[in-house]
Amino acid sequence: MAKMKAALDREGAKFILFGGEPLLMPIDDLEEIFAYGFERFGGSGIQTNGVLIQDAHVGIFRKYNVHVGISIDGPEGLNDARADRKRSRTRESTAAVQAAIERLCLDYKPPSLIVTLHRGNALAEHLPVMFDWMRQLDGLGIRSMRLHVLEVEDAGVRESLALTPRENVEAILAFTLLESSLKNLRFDLVGEMKRLLLGDERNISCVWRACDPYSTAAVRGIEGNGQSSNCGRTSKDGVDHIKASRHGYERYLALYRTPEKDGGCQGCRFFLMCKGQCPGTALGGDWRNRTEHCSMWKYLFATLEQELIREGQTPLSIHPLRRRREQDAIARWTSQTGIEV
User: Fold this and answer.
1) Structural domain count of the chain
2) Is residue 333 within 8 Å of 253, Cβ to Cβ?
């Protein structure tokens, strides 16, 4: 605990407790770390599957100003991909998470949610149930839901759960259409993509920020022994690399110049917005390639591009200054990486 606190002091900012499942920690340890976060930074956060949340946890969250994020993929059977040993136990756990969400909304503060899209919750046949659930969440006061495209690292998972690019696009656009009828709940994904198309990179997620897999800026992890670590999504070769001392842009300098047939982004008009997306989703698990979800993101960007044009705006993707902005970015990344290209 002392080593973790010393590392947090060096970082000097609010932190989020995550895992694995952080609520497996003894409750006294949880209270100690959250008390430290409150005294040092005015609060902290936790990302949890929510299954283990009890009254005592809610009391600690309230006492130490802890923002709660919950990972859940839908109600009842639509959350079965988050299996808890056997199906009956999984459904009981999902019900416990739903009860915890309602408890937090009523007795503390609404949590933010992360929902991963897959064949168990985002096929067309599942969307009506998802819409009803999201309307219920909206009524409870939930304001933020992050939609995640499934990260695949196993052939069996790909076969059983992964959506096709078309299915992902249809689900994301359907949720975006639903958003217009909701009072509180917002899906941040499409809003971020629209802002990127207009050249606005403020307050966007890490997947659009030219992440260095050896020095992930958005995740400055601290392990139980105080060691600095990176975002786990980038660890594809069985090694949790020690965090690099500086941020490099080698991936993005290469992607800009590498043809699409060889895993790059050469000539893509959405490169400034997408930047090859998250290295943790790269083709073949090799961070040097663009994301395996390229066709999906490209279709979504093109759809939103047309929407902005109809609104009378000029997206950066078709703006006469796009090439100049690309060259400015390449020059900046080259300078900050310290290499000659």
Assistant:
1) 2
2) yes
The reply to whether 193 falls in a domain is no
Cα(314)–Cα(291) distance, integer angstroms? 26
- pLDDT tens profile 207-230: 999 999 999 988 888 888 888 888
Residue 96 CA to residue 70 CA, distance in Å, equals 12
pLDDT digits (tens, 9 = 90+) for 120-167: 999 999 999 999 999 999 999 999 999 999 998 889 999 999 999 999
The owner of tokens 């309307």 is 135
Residue 205 lies in a domain: no
At 214, list the tokens.
Answer: 């050896």
129 and 64 housed in the same domain: yes
Q: What pTM value is reported for the model?
A: 0.91
Give the number of other CB atoms < 10 A from CB of residue 223: 12
Return the bridge partners of 116, or none.
Answer: 148
Q: Are residues 128 and 44 in the same domain?
A: yes
What's the rounded Cα separation, in Å, for the pair 238 and 3?
25
Q: 3-state DSSP call for residue 146?
A: strand
Domain that holds residue 14: 2-187
Residues 179 and 230 both lie in one domain: no
Contacts of 246 (CB under 8 A, 6+ apart): 215
For β-strands 228-229 and 221-222, DSSP reports them as antiparallel
Q: Which residue has the tokens 């100049």?
A: 324
| Rounded CA separation 197/88 (Å) | 45
Tokens at 69, concatenated: 């994020």
Instruction: With respect to residue 304, please indicate whether it lies within any of the assigned structural domains.
Output: yes
203 phi and psi angles, rounded to 5 deg: 55, 45
Residues 162 and 232 in one domain: no
Q: Which two tokens stand for residue 341?
A: 């290209």
Residue whose tokens read 């809003």: 191
Closest alpha carbon to 276 in 341, 207, 328: 207
Contacts of 156 (CB under 8 A, 6+ apart): none
